[in-house]
Amino acid sequence: MSKKKIEGLVDFTVHSLKYKTQLTKKFVDRKPYEAPNHNHVKSVIPGTVVEIFVKEGDRVKAGESIMLLEAMKMMNQIAMPHDGKIKTIHVKPGDRIPKHQLMIELE
Amino acid sequence: MSLKKHILDLRKRKEKVQQGGGEKAIEKQAAMGKMTARERILALLDKESFTEYDLFVEHEARDFGMDKKQLHGDGVIIGTGTIYGAPICIYAQDFTVAGGSLGLMHARKITKIMDHALKMRVPLIGINDSGGARIQEGVNSLAGYGEIFYRNTLASGVIPQLSVILGPCAGGAVYSPALTDFVFVVDKISKMFITGPGVIETVLGEKISMEDLGGARVHAETTGNAHFFANSEAECIDQIKKLVTFIPWNNTKKAKAFPPKPPKFSGNIEDLIPSDPKQPYDVRDVIRAIVDDSDFFEIQDLWAANMVIGFGRLNGETVGFVANQPLVLAGVLDCDSSDKAARFIRFCDAFNIPIITLEDMPGYLPGVDQEHAGVIRHGAKVLYAYSEATVPKVTVILRKAYGGGYIAMNSRHLGADFMFAWPTAEIAVMGPEGAANIIFKKEIDGADDPDAMRQLKVQEYKEKFANPYVAAAKGYIDSVIEPSETRQLLLHAIEVSASKDDHRPTKKHGVPPF
Q: Which one of B68, B168, B312, B422 is CB 3.0 to 4.6 Å from B291, fit for a cystine?
C-alpha cells in the first residue's frame, strides 16, 4: 500500500459536498464578483482623459456625451447611461487611466 | 577550375554561411544561455541525419541600406532529418542573423519546408527565436507570416506540428505556434506576447516585466498556450524526442508500436484510491499503475491541473489519457480544463490514437467568474470533441460521475465504445447530499430532528442510487469491474477495437464552440 501524504489540502465545496483538495494559483487569484453599480461610470478601456464636458451638480440626460477618452488612437465619447445628476468627478483632463477605473459618480 | 577546386570552393562557401551571424553574435547567444539554431537542430535530430536546404538563400531587400547587408541564410535554417528514425521536417530561426527577424526570403524558406512536410506527410518542427518582423521589409514580412499561418492551418490534423519557443516570439509571430499541436517552452528563455511590455507601458501605463507578461512559466501555468515546460534547452529537446515516439507521422498512420512492457507497479490498484469520495488522490498514480512500464507522458501538467492529459502505451500501442484529477479543485470541469481536454481529444482523434477516459469528478465549478467566462461554451467543447471522435473510446468510472460531468466525460451517450465502472463508482444526477435535500425536502423539513432525517435520507439515497448498478441495469455501463482487472480490460478493449470503422455524416467541417 502506498499512501502518500498529500500537502496543501483545503475544504472545497462543489454543490452540496465538501471535498479535500488542492487549489490552483489561478483559482486563488480570481477576482470576487462585484455587482455593477449603475451610478458608476467606469472606463471600459485603458486610455487618456481628453476633456470633460460636465461639472459636478449638472443634470444630464441619458445618451448625452459627458467626456472624451482617448484610447487605442481613437477618441471615445462617454455617454450618460441614464438621466441623472453628476455627483463626483474623479478624473481630470490629461489623466492616464487603467480599465475599470471609476471616472464619474452619478446620482 | 579543376573539379577539386570546385569542391573546395563549395566547402568554403558553406563554411562561411554556416557561421550565421558570426563569432560575436554567437558569443552573445551563448551568454544568454542559448544554443545556436544549428546546434539545436543537430542536438534534436539523429546523428548525421540533418540535410539542409536553401543554405545560400539571400534576401532581396533594397531599402534602408539593406542592399549592402548580407544576411547568411536570411536568418533561418531549414531541412530534413530523423528523430529515432522517424522522418522530420524542421526549421530553426537563427537569432544571430539580424535577430532572426522575418523577411520575405526567410518566410519563403519556412513555407518551403512546411510545403515539403505536408507533401511528404511527415511531422514538422519549428524552432522560434526571432525578434519579429524585419521592419525594413515592410509588408513583405507580414505577407510571410500570413503564408506560414495558412500552411499551419492546412497541415493541421494531417501532420503533427510542433513549435519550440527558444527565444522571443512576439507580435504576429506567436500565432504560428498557437496554430500548431504542441508548444514547448524553456524557463527564462521563451517569451511570447502580442504586445510587449514597452507598448503596454506607453499606451496603458501598466508596468510589467517581459518574464511576468509572457515568460515560459506564464504560458505553461496561466494561459495554457504552452504544452511542455522545461528548465533547460537540453531538457526541452528530450521532451520533443519523447513526444515524437508517441505520435504517428501523419493522419493515415498509427503511432509506432513498442515492445509491450508490464507496469512497474506491484501493489493493489484499489489501495491508491480512498473510498470516501470526498478524499483526494493523484489520478496519475492510477494511470501509472495501468500503462506499460508505468511511463505516463503528461501534457500541460502545470495548467488546469484539475484535468490530466497525456500519452501512455498499452501493450506497446500509444493511447491518450483524459482523467479528472481529484487532487486539484476536486477534479471539477471548468473553462480551462474543458479547453485542455477538448483539444487533446481532437488531436488523438485526428491522429488515430485511442482515448482512455478515467472519470472521477463532482461536476462543473460553480461561480460567477466561471459562468461569465463562458463555461457553457467551453464545456460544450468537451461534448463536441468526444462525440465527434471516431477513434476507440474507453471510459473507466473510478468514483464520482455526477450530473453533466457524467455525460461529458465520454459517456455511452456520446458514443463511448466501452464503459467500465469500478464498484466504487457513484453515477447519479448529483451528489447524494444535494439529491436527498431536494427529493426528501418535505420529509426533512417536517421531521422532529431534520438533521437526523437528512442523514437518514442521504444514506438511503446513497445505497439506492450512488452506485454503478443503476446505470449498469440500463446498459449504460457495460461492465462493473474490479480495479485489479482494469489494465487487462483496457488491453482487451484496444485489441478488439483495432479495426474500428465508425463514420460521421459527410460535411465540409463542423462548427465547434471554439
A: B312
